Amino acid sequence: MSLSPARSLGQKDPEEWAQFVWQRLDALNQRLTKAGKMIESRDENLAELNRQATEFAETRLPVLKALQIA
User: Fold this and answer.
1) What string of DSSP letters covers 37-63?
2) CA pair distance 70, 62, nearest whole angstrom
3) Domain that residue 34 falls in
4) Are 14 and 49 in contact (CB under 8 A)?
5) Each residue of 14-36: pLDDT tens digit?
6) Is 0.90 topped by the overall pTM?
7) How far apart are CA 9 and CA 11, in angstroms?
8) For the chain, what is the domain count?
9) Sign of the torsion angle spanned by Cα atoms 20, 21, 24, 26
10) Burial 5-39 (b: 16+ CB within 10 A, else e)
């Protein structure tokens, strides 16, 4: 699931993006996987989404902004 809808709806930081994505995944009864294993708990899913969102914000988003894509 992409973070761009979260940003376009006004969520400004990685924690908000993670919460946005988690709400949608949970509504669809979907979970993340890590190292080939399903992450079952809400807290573990949110922790992984936060990690991914923070990594995106720190490494990929600046490049996309510099290219005027984001």
Assistant:
1) EE--SHHHHHHHHHHHHHHIIIIIHHH
2) 9
3) 4-66
4) no
5) 999 999 999 999 999 999 999 99
6) no
7) 6
8) 1
9) negative
10) ebbeeebeebebbbbbbbeeeeeeeebbeeeeeeb
